[in-house]
Amino acid sequence: MTDPAPLSPLVEIAGLSVRFRTKRGPGDVLDAASLVIPAGTSVGLVGESGCGKSTLMKAVMGVLADNAEITAGQILHNGTDLLRADAETLRRKRWAEISMITQSALNSLNPVHTVGDQIVEAIRAHRPVSVAEAREMAAQMLALVGVEPRRARDYPHQFSGGMRQRAIIAMALVLQPGLVLADEPTTSLDMIVQDQIFRKIRSLQAELGFSMLLVTHDLAVVIENCSRMAVMYAGRIVEEGLVADVVNAPFHPYTLGLKNSLPRIDRTSEPIAIPGAPPDPVDMPQGCRFAPRCPFALPVCRSQPPVLETVGEGHRSACHRNAEIPGLRPRAARFATWHDTATTDITEDIQ
Length: 351
Description:
By secondary structure, the protein is an alpha/beta fold. Helix content is 31%, strand content 23%. Helix 4 (115-124) packs across helix 5 (131-144), helix 5 packs across helix 6 (161-173) and helix 6 runs parallel beside helix 7.
């Protein structure tokens, strides 16, 4: 997918840093993360579990855990800095202007209230409408997401997994917010239902015109559903740009590794996994946080953190070897590069 034309930013996240207080000490989960969500578009945020994706989304929504502390940055929504807004301003914005589709619909719905009553409650918290009017709005939105309106009288346990997820989507969209935050919205669903859910989200987006930030560990989901994307590793944005540019010509070694892990019909070999594990947030590496797992790391990578640099129009990457990456891509596509240290000498000539 490609952007049709430059659009004004709906949300601008600038230099966002979040620290968690733990028994082992402070953990830097987000480090100077910056991201722009243009109006009317879908932006994918992709990375491994624990890299800080959901933390960024919860910071935008204002629902971080009690042991989390925002140490720096801004989150501008239509010109309002959400990090410095008062409680009433944030309350008015939640669900009415910014809503969230969570990854566990069963845990998000109250088991002792009907699905319809929960949607009605969200409507009446932000709109001066009667119960009857709110029920009609809820019924219309349930129908729009493919749930029979009469099922509004049922409880969450009477819904299938896919229907519960559709109910959460209905709740997130019933007030027609401008921004929807989707946190792994189909993780617990089978492939067929996943496809149905995302088709429904895309059709609703075309009809209602909202922007979406889609958080996922699945690069394929971002390719199919987003126009722009950002790649996050260990709390830092390491690459961002149009989906087509980042996927077809990735610059950061971590993005190259993610691309290797995608199954492809034309590939005769198995997908290539990135060896190792992300660093401990309580003990982050001094330089590039991907350096301990990177087959192309130089000494400078272990001592100095790289900064995001422009590598193409609207395309940025944070790697000390950005200029060399086009020549390193063929090596990055080989299994031995990632799993046989004898073949990954950093002094090897670039092909």
